[in-house]
Amino acid sequence: AWDMDTQLAWAKLRTTVGWDHISDYTRHDHDIWYTELSCTYGDITGRCTRGGLGHISQAVDNYTFKTRLDWQKFTVGNVSHQPYFGAEYIYSDAWTERHNQSESYVINAAGKKTNHTIYHKGKGSLGIDNYTLYMADRISWRNVSLMPGVRYDYDNYLSNHNISPRFMTEWDIFADQTSMITAGYNR
């Protein structure tokens, strides 16, 4: 990830740009996976499983852009405010590939195949956009602080719009930041 902090006259701007890649390749020696319900050398239940499900590749790439603007603290009367605003965008690109056809089944006690499933060779992919906007204000008076806020999230996979409340309160018992009691409500 790449982070950049910019100090403006009235606020601090933090921007993060990132990319991460996660991948996995599984290679089995066999293209058939089966379970025998009665075999003499199996586990304690008398079952044994053999084979594999072929070759499977999968990966996810996440591209991230985040920015947050923290305003400098300002005072109105005896109450100080320190608002912040932020936005995030994450694009996730996922794919999977089964390199060969494979199958699985169960051989029952009578020696017959049951629960037969065929996994066809093929590829699949999916791209998901996630958007987030949020804002909050840390409001302080003497040794008590409140932080109301709200967060909005949207993803295009299920077209979900979510609005989440944010609330935190904090009491600095001795007004020296050594003993704090904090409570919050967030979804």
From TrEMBL:
Any coiled-coil regions, as ranges: none
Keyword field: Cell outer membrane, Membrane, Receptor
Record flagged with keyword Membrane: yes
Gene Ontology CC terms: cell outer membrane
Gene3D superfamilies assigned to the protein according to its UniProt record, in alphabetical order: TonB-dependent receptor, beta-barrel domain (2.40.170.20)
Compartments where located: Cell outer membrane
Nucleotide-binding recorded as keyword: no
InterPro entries, per database record: Beta-barrel_TonB_sf
Primary localisation category: membrane
Name of the protein this chain belongs to: TonB-dependent Receptor Plug protein
Source organism of this protein record: Escherichia coli DORA_A_5_14_21
